[in-house]
Design brief:
Blueprint: E1 3-6, H1 7-23, H2 29-36, H3 41-54, E2 57-58, E3 67-68, E4 73-76, E5 79-88, E6 95-96, E7 102-106, E8 116-121, E9 136-140, E10 150-154, E11 160-167, E12 172-175, E13 184-186, E14 190-199
Parallel strand pairs: 1-4, 5-8
Antiparallel strand pairs: 2-3, 5-6, 5-7, 8-9, 9-14, 10-11, 10-14, 11-12, 12-13
Domain LexA repressor DNA-binding: 4-62
Keywords: DNA replication, DNA-binding, Repressor, Transcription, Transcription regulation
GO molecular function: DNA binding; serine-type endopeptidase activity
């Protein structure tokens, strides 16, 4: 059976395997920590625990010797953890998230030079924008965006919208993403972030 590990976990497993091959015994926790920049024993154990659970690393209770178990390994894509900061709902201001939640996204799917955060769509008010209740918007923090970029912006009354933004001489024009709804004109669009990705989790019936 194929075991799925992150690239970091594969590197850790290979280090232990190669160490045992060279020296005939397994590395100490201190040596593992030094090799991977891990300082505290608890942090080292946190990195080893997934290898034990996957069955690719074994250690007898109370023993200090590791045993590497040969299994077919698939390397998972590297991921980035993005905080879910709140909710966006039609006709309302942005709603803060009372919980500490996050989305895990493949690192190849998002730019690495942006501060990222996530907002979740609440309700069916954005159906005309192609957004459904429960959709996750991955945003890059921004106060300005290029013309035609999709952004979460606040209107003059503080309510949040998800629109394409266009700059005009004395105002901003906010256009629907997918529909022919008339534009909204505001003196200044208070940009909260540029929408980079929409993630939709489908429920199985």
């Amino acid at each position: 059976m194929e075991v799925k590990l992150s690239r970091r976990q594969v590197q850790l497993l290979n280090y232990i395997r190669q160490y045992i091959t060279r020296k005939g015994f397994s590395p100490s926790l201190g040596e593992i920590g030094a090799a991977f920049g891990l300082r505290s024993p608890s942090t080292i154990h946190e990195h080893l625990e997934p290898l034990f659970k996957a069955g690719v690393l074994k250690r007898e209770r109370g023993a200090k010797i590791f045993e590497v178990v040969d299994k077919q390994i698939a390397v998972l894509p590297e991921t980035v953890t993005i905080p879910i900061m709140g909710f966006v709902a039609l006709g309302q201001a942005l709603i803060p998230n009372p919980k500490e939640e996050s989305m895990i996204v493949p690192v190849t799917e998002v730019p690495q030079d942006r501060n990222l955060f996530c907002l979740r769509v609440r309700g069916r008010g954005f159906v005309t924008e192609g957004l459904l209740d429960g959709d996750y918007l991955i945003l890059g923090q921004a106060m300005e965006v290029f013309d035609g970029a999709t952004a979460v912006a606040l209107l003059n009354n503080g309510t949040a919208v998800v629109k394409k933004v266009y700059r005009e001489e004395t105002r901003a024009r906010l256009m629907s993403i997918v529909s022919d709804d008339p534009p909204i004109f505001v003196k200044r669009a208070k940009i909260q972030g540029e929408v980079l990705m929409v993630i939709r989790k489908l429920s199985l019936l």
